[in-house]
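Table S7 (text form). Paired inputs.
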Amino acid sequence: MSKNDNIQHTIDWTTVIYYLILVVMGWVSIYGASYEIDYEGSILSFDQRTGKQFVWIISALVLGGVILLLDYRIFNYFAYIIYGFVLLLLIVTIFVAPEIKGSRSWLVIGPVSFQPAELAKMATALALAKFMSRHNFVIKGWKDMVPLAIIVFIPFAFILLQKETGSALVFLAFLFMFYREGMNGIVLLLGSLAIVLFIVVIRFSIEIIGDNQGSWGIIAALGLIQLIQFLVSFKSQTHKKESLIIAGSTIAAGIIAVVVNNWIPVNYNYIAGAVVVLTALFWGITGLLRRYPSLSGVAAVALVSVVFIFASDIIFNKVLEPHHQIRIKVLLNMEDDLTGAGYNVNQSKIAIGSGGFTGKGFLNGTQTKLKYVPEQDTDFIFCTVGEEHGFIGSTLVLIIYWLLLMRLLTIAERQKEVFHRVYAYSVVSILFFHLMINVGMVLGIMPVIGIPLPFFSYGGSSLWGFTLLLFVLLRLDASRLERGR
């Protein structure tokens, strides 16, 4: 039997079908988003985005076909070389790319523009799979996570230097794969805690205490950390008395600070921070002396959290760009800004809401036809689906994505080689992250960070990037059956 026959019988055609359905639906939606009533040209005309996207679709299919014909061992053997080459592209992009919408992330070659960051996802997944498939490698502790973090951080940093925050944040998706491969779940829990603390600090930072004597955001975040310390210590049968004493002392310190403030100005942020630090030091020392690792652990988390809480306020006000600050404020309902940073989301929600249950019909969307929604055929393509096809159409698209993700999870679970399994879970994680953020962004429940909807949004870079990501996995999966013949 020839190699082509092997591929034909071993490829996971169910995944290919889902891919084709999403690509075609995306192309139709791009047509709906970019359609102009007085336009008389063809849908395949190159002066329209649908014509350009059609070329990208055909080239992506050719690219996918070529990948399926390659020897699957190439991806393992050349994983580091591919990773290094893409890093080089990212570095070059920082210095030679023209500035487009505030970022330098596009390499322009004649009439074609390409975003190397889209390739970085696949290259990083291959490098991680290569490293984690080494003999006897297992994620047991922080030492094992350090090299993995470095592999992820390098492209993350280069993309961040291009001022492409959204594309950089996608690399957080690898945490899901790390968790599947043995990373302690406490890491995800701590990550969630960091997000909660950041939101609390920023959301209530506008509520100033007295004459600039503190922020309710910082006080609330520090109070949450103190509450966590109390719950962990009180749970211990041998430390209930100490935990109650510390709880009472915390309340007393607050009352004393309020009383003293009548004569001497007090900065409540520093008082609360000091109380949390002293409590953490007490429990840390107690945990070490009496061999209670849970107390020492929560004390360490508390100390780091205090630094993070104060740093969050500084980072938000001093480090983040003004447009990033506005986007976060709009998301947290701190500002409306319906004509500025909140305009896209507001118009997107209007478009989706106007679609109702069944939608206005193909090419009948008023919000999209009148161009009220910026980026409606790229980052905000999902609002076109909602307006033209309503709740039913939007649900259908999400169901297809869900079926694809479930299929990819099945593929990941059946891999016998570590390299294949790690890469498969990386693909699932990246696609899930993109889907979650993009749809949430369009609905106004996630920050607007500008990442495309996989296989759906207009753009050759994203389509090529996702096609490479998926078809490399299909090629690796096909080898599972080839070896068995």
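Next pair, protein 2 of 2.
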Amino acid sequence: MLKVGITGGIGSGKSLVCRILESLGYSVFYSDKESKLITINDQEVRSALIARYGHEVYNEYGVNKKLLSEQIFKNPDERLFVNSLIHPKVREAFEKFAGKSAKPLVFNEAAILFETGSYKAFDRTILVTAPEEIRIDRVIQRDNFTRASVQSRIDSQWKDEEKSELADGIIINDGVQPLIYQLENLVTELIG
């Protein structure tokens, strides 16, 4: 079985690509969803976040996203702290997930695969790209963020040019090039 990491910047369309892969019958692990579950349910993580940011880091809805986002997107040291706390647990959950799959390929969607060095744990990596203006518009519509907030998140991630040097394959999600065609070719290439 090949373990394939799928990444891309905010608004690139990673989740859409992964939903298409699932519709084609492949198993996809969503690191972001798992990270949220760990942040809420793992007592070790909860204790560390409360110790660092105070009890207000959690609210009646779970994690106080606004407070935590402000910390990690403005301060690289805080981002490193949170990532080092949560990412090893996400990796462990993916390994369990992959161990249960009987498919020739298992995919892992992760926003910062290259930035964290996690890409080294995969057999192959796929980068989903889209022009920056399209990405900004997608996130504004999807999350109701301000343009400045989206730009801040984009600026905190590596540029596609940097990521493409490490990627084994690239999917272009610009609304023009057909995704299914690209994915079918990619899967054939990976399996073949």
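The first helix runs from residue 14 to 23.
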